[in-house]
Amino acid sequence: MTDLTASQRRLNRRQLLAGGTALGAASLLPDSGRAQSGELVVSNWGGDWNDRIVKGFETPAFGASQVRIIHDLAPVPERKAKLLAERRLPRGSVDVTWLSDADAYEMNAQGALETLDTSRIPSSKTIVEKLRLPYLVPCIYGGVVILYNPAKIPEPPTSFADLWNPKYAGRVGIMDQLHFNYIYAASLTHGGTMSDVGKAFPALLDLKKAVQPRLYPSHQALAAAFQSEEIWISANYSARAVQWEAEKLPIRWSYPKEGAIFISFGAGIAKKARNPEAAYAYLEAMLQPKPMGAISQATSYSVVTTNAELPAEDRRRLEFTPEQIAKLNFVDYPYAAKSDPKWVEWWNKEFKA
User: Fold this and answer.
1) φ, ψ (nearest 5 deg) of residue 74
2) What is the sign, positive or negative, of the torsion defined by CA atoms of 16, 77, 232, 157?
3) Are strands 96-100 and 37-44 parallel, antiparallel or unpaired?
4) DSSP letter for each residue of 87-111
5) CA distances, 120 to each of 173, 203, 280, 283, 307 (Å)
6) How far apart are CA 245 and CA 253, in angstroms?
7) The three-state (H, E, C) secondary structure of 127-147, written as one string
8) Is the N or C terminus of the chain more exposed, i.e. has fewer CB atoms within 10 Å?
9) All domains in the chain, ordered by first residue
10) Are strands 66-73 and 172-175 parallel, antiparallel or unpaired?
11) Cut 0.90: pTM above it
């Protein structure tokens, strides 16, 4: 979900959030949050992801407050490297960091995230119990599913294995930054598991030979390829399919029989945060019913709380069915954290070569 070019990152890094555009916005902020002030550095992905978080949550919640949000936008590898480099400093440069569930596990295991004091986040009790984490406040969740062009593939695909179908040669799209999800998909379809992906690597080399997949650097590039009909099929987040379908792209999504690959996103507090008071206020404000519903609508992901203000129609559009939820494949966090450097090296040297 890292959509920034190098030039965009230079323009956006430490970008000041313009506030004061919505009168009465402070009413969305809990009483404890309204008392906070000063700069709050929020580390996040860039591109349309950050735009949606700003529009759906940060501007309504903080636009009229005394907390001045400064964005530090960059791809995940750069942001994780910064967290690791600053964990032993007297004070770091980041207060709040947005991460996926897997990346947050890795950063916590390496001592870069604070263990959260939930007494300072009263609304954390509204988070669905099985999604609660001691070092991250989850916000939204979804899963990796199959995306396809219904005009070119009238019969909805039923398995990640459809990506290997030779009749789609030259029409399969792969997003570079989601390498780990393709490894999981290959494992699930070729006799492996989420905790043992050894069979994925020869399977992905077979994919490369069978369909000559096209590789794209970002979600936007993948969407453009669907729009131009350069590609017909891919695997990506369910939320992206919902967004792009709403934008009239020729895309539908199909739930794979193997089960979708679970993903959640949330925010935590950096170990050496400069403004922990405002950081806790940020997390509490994020969990309020209106912001949670707004973030879900802005990002097209399901909410993690029980009291989000979300119309019933949107819940039906954005959420998986109970049967689909039961088949979700969850990441084995310790295994992934230990293995990801090797996976990245293999992906770059073998699959992309």
Assistant:
1) -170, 165
2) negative
3) parallel
4) TTSSS-S-SEEEEEHHHHHHHHHTT
5) 44, 47, 7, 9, 19
6) 9
7) ECHHHCCCCCEEEEEEEEEEE
8) C
9) 6-141+264-320 (3.40.190.10), 142-262+326-351 (3.40.190.10)
10) unpaired
11) no
